[in-house]
Design brief:
Elements (H helix, E strand, L loop, with lengths): L5 H13 L6 H15 L4 H17 L3 H17 L10 H15 L3 H14 L4 H13 L2 H32 L4 H48 L2
Helix pairs in contact: 1-2, 2-3, 3-4, 4-5, 5-6, 5-7, 6-7, 6-9, 7-9, 8-9
Length: 227
């Protein structure tokens, strides 16, 4: 029996992919990993279709590091072949957005911000990328957010302990001091809670301003480029 020609073999391989369910993410990942070299030899449209499905499967299954690594080749192919739209969407924008999101989930906030800025420069109207940019700016304040979280937890635990102490000890044995002790708890708790909450709001506003400033700059650049 003569072996199948290269074109026939690649067509059969492509048909195998088409029979897969849209949500069979792990099957798509396994299929691409096992046949990557052959997939790259397929005609461009078929190859890109399988590769985009593979990247989406990586993203949907939370394989963010692998997505970040593998998506770069896909972006380079899109640039090289000058592909703006593919199957009804802009694959470059979608991949760049998911790449920024993957970096966010990997807690690589600085490169996430850079990728989000790059995409906003291309398309300032993308609300999903605006949210990623804001979230990355905010999450980049790692130490401050940990401090706020720890401070709020410590304040709530301290308040709970003092209230229990007031109910068991003060109210039972020093009832005349009960009202004064409750006021003391309030005087201690409110300033601490207010400080940490105001600090959190300050970070949110600061990051919102940073993100909005970049978005406005991108909009102005787009406006200036219009004939």
């Amino acid at each position: 029996m003569s072996p199948l020609s290269s074109d026939t073999r690649l067509r059969n391989l492509y048909n195998q992919y088409l029979y897969m369910d849209d949500k069979a993410f792990y099957d798509k990942i396994r299929f691409f990993d096992q046949n990557e070299s052959d997939i790259m030899l397929m005609r461009l449209e078929d190859s890109l279709w399988i590769q985009s499905g593979y990247l989406d499967a990586l993203f949907q299954t939370g394989e963010y590091k692998k997505y970040n690594d593998k998506s770069q080749q896909f972006l380079q192919r899109l640039i090289y072949h000058n592909i703006d739209y593919f199957h009804g969407e802009n694959p470059y924008e979608e991949t760049l957005h998911k790449k920024a999101t993957a970096l966010y989930h990997m807690r690589s906030y600085t490169p996430c911000i850079e990728h989000a800025k790059q995409l906003i420069n291309i398309n300032p109207k993308r609300k999903d990328t605006r949210r990623v940019l804001f979230s990355a700016h905010r999450s980049a304040h790692t130490f401050a957010l940990k401090l706020i979280k720890a401070g709020l937890m410590a304040t709530l635990l301290m308040t709970a302990f003092l209230l229990v102490f007031q109910q068991i000890i003060v109210a039972s044995f020093f009832s005349k001091m009960s009202h004064w002790f409750l006021q003391l708890i309030l005087a201690i708790t409110v300033p601490f809670l207010s400080f940490f909450l105001v600090y959190k709001v300050f970070i949110d506003i600061k990051c919102w301003i940073q993100a909005k400033k970049w978005i406005d700059q991108a909009k102005h650049k787009k406006t200036d480029l219009r004939p």
